[in-house]
Amino acid sequence: WDEAASRSGHADFGLRAAEHAPVGAFDLIEYAARSCATFGEALRKVARLGPLVATGGEMELEEGKGRAAFTHHDPGALRHVSELLLATVVLRHEAHG
User: Fold this and answer.
1) What does residue 74 show for φ and ψ, rounded to 5 degrees?
2) Helix (H, G, I), strand (E, B) or coil at 73
3) pTM for this one?
4) Distance between CA atoms of residues 8 and 85, nearest Å
5) Residue 22 to residue 28: CA distance in whole angstroms
6) Do residues 51 and 85 make contact, with C-beta atoms less than 8 angstroms apart?
7) Over 90: is that where the pLDDT of 85 sits?
C-alpha cells in the first residue's frame, strides 16, 4: 500500500482508491451498509459485520454527545486500508442516499 501511494504520487492513496472501487467490491459489508436508511446506521452495521469479512481487524463505533468515532484497527494493515474502507462506506452511502 505504501508503494502504491508512492508510485501514484498520492499520499492519501486509500482515499483515492475508494473513488475507483467498483460497486460490490466489499461484498456483504457493502450491501449491508447500502441497505441502511441513515449513515449512522450504516456505520453501526459496518462496525458489527466488518470483523466477519476483514479477518484480523477490529472495528468499533463510539457514539455520544452529538459525535461519533469509528475506529478500524488492524495490526497487519496500513492506514490506506482503513481509509479505503471508510471512504467507500461514505461514498456508497452518499450515492445511495
Assistant:
1) -140, 110
2) strand
3) 0.71
4) 19
5) 14
6) no
7) no
CA 19 to chain centre: 12
Residue (of 31, 2, 15, 12) closest to 88 by Cα position:
15
**Residue range 33-38: average pLDDT?**
85
The grid cell for 6 is: 508512492
C-alpha span between 6 and 4 (Å, rounded): 5
How sure is the predictor about 97, in pLDDT bands with cuts at 50, 70 and 90?
A: low
Nearest to 56 by CA among 73, 71, 44: 73
Strand partners, 62: 69
Asked if residue 21 lies in contact with residue 14, where contact means CB atoms within 8 angstroms, the answer is no
DSSP output for 9-67? T-TTHHHHHHHHPPTTTTHHHHHHHHT-SSHHHHHHHHHHHHHHHSTT-EEEEEEETTE
